[in-house]
Amino acid sequence: MWLPLLGLILGITLGLLTDIQIPSEYENYLSIAVLAALDTLFGGIRAQLQHIYDDKVFVSGFFFNITLAAGLAFLGVHLGVDLYLAAIFAFGVRLFQNIAVIRRILLTRWTERKGTID
Amino acid sequence: MKHGIYVRFTFILLIVGFMIAVQYNTVQKPESRDTRDIWEIRQELSAERQLHSDLLSKIRAVNETITTYENLQSDSPAQALNETLLTLRKKAGLTIVTSPGLELTIEPSLEAIALGKNITSISPDLLARLLNEINRFNGNDVSIDRKRIINSSPIRDINGLTTVNSLNIQTPPFKIRIGTDTKEDAELLYSHLQSSMIADDFYIDNLNLIIGNPQGQISIPAYDQPIKNNYLKNASKGD
Question: Which domain holds residue A112?
Fold first, then answer.
């Protein structure tokens, strides 16, 4: 349970300690990649809770989504259309949906557990 | 099975955390912002242009030397070497220089004489400041009280006496001679010194700075002491 949290903390520490900065023109790509990563992550958690988790889907989805989002943003920059907004919108909506589903599942479990204790 | 999932989540979270930290670094600590306005940038540009043209003229001079070497190689390499040596000695301040320039006289101010104040030696700080002003406006060769200033000349206080090249300079009045490349440079330096605040600084110390008119020919003595070069060594052959 605590292992993933440890990974997150380790990642953040590593990032802060190495003090890496990316050029400001690539900032958009990274922010959209972060969003895609978060989306996949919450999708994975939801799938796990719904017992439909698949390793291949999760790992491939993670990298594919990041690449797709960054690629879309790149394409948008070169076409003069803000395509990254599409990615932000899609990922944002899915992120909220996933979190809502996770919340419901956890709430249901909590209520069930409470019911059995009572 | 369950363990495998955790490992994968950990790995993914590691990447996510890293990306977030990098994003945070980029957003929170932007590289120092450029706050120069257009005039500052223009000034810097003009300074760089000046440097560019200086470098070009230096390259030309060096190229000329190379051409001289090549021309004289068959005739007499010694002569070319001597010429270079002479140029270098001139540059280092080891020769008497006769060039356009001007003469400054530093003397006690009239008030100081009238009030009977003690005339002290000029302070090294003031002298260094004056020298900086002179250097800023192309004063190439300078002698203070007949002591030639070279790149390594020290100006300092030794036991309460101001010295240049470790030799005392007399209490005012004494003369400072400045050589420039052209008469125009001398005039420019003259007007700059006239308009600068340096005369006021002298006045605070009960001294008068009298700036002589630019002259067509002024003779500046050579540096006559041995040059200490503790940190220079002969290059071995082929270097």
Answer: 21-117
User: Tokens 């440890």 identify what position?
Assistant: A6
Q: Is residue B185 in some structural domain?
A: yes
Please indicate, yes or no, if residue A5 is contained in any of the structural domains. Answer: no
Interhelix angle B183-195/B124-136, nearest 10 degrees: 130
Flag whether residue A74 sits within 8 Å of chain B, measured between CB atoms: no
A19–B23 C-beta distance less than 8 A? no
B126 inside domain: yes
pLDDT of residue B30: 61
Give the domain range for residue B107. 97-220
**Structural domain contains residue B193:** yes
Partner B contacted by A63 (CB < 8 A): no
The number of residues making up chain B comes to 239
Residue A45 counted as domain residue:
yes
Closest CA to B193 of B147, B143, B110, B137: B137
Report how many domains make up chain B: 1
User: Looking at the 3D structure of chain A, how many domains does it have?
Assistant: 1
Closest-CA distance, A75 to chain B, in angstroms, reads: 21
Contact B31/A at CB under 8 A: yes
Q: With a cut of 70, list the residues of chain B below it in pLDDT.
A: 1-2, 29-33, 73-75, 238-239
Give the Cα separation of B26 and B20 in Å (integer): 10
Q: Which residue of A2, A5, A9, A16 to mutate against B (max B Cβ within 10 Å)?
A: A16
- Give residue A68's pLDDT: 87
pLDDT score at A95: 92
Asked if B17 and A9 come within 8 Å (Cβ–Cβ), the reply is yes
Q: Does a structural domain hold residue B66? A: no
**DSSP conformation class of B95:** S
Predicted complex: ipTM over 0.90 = no
pTM: 0.47
CA pair distance B68, B61, nearest whole angstrom: 11
DSSP secondary-structure letter at B225?
Answer: S
Report the CATH number at residue B156: 3.30.70.1880
The predicted structure's pLDDT at residue B73: 67
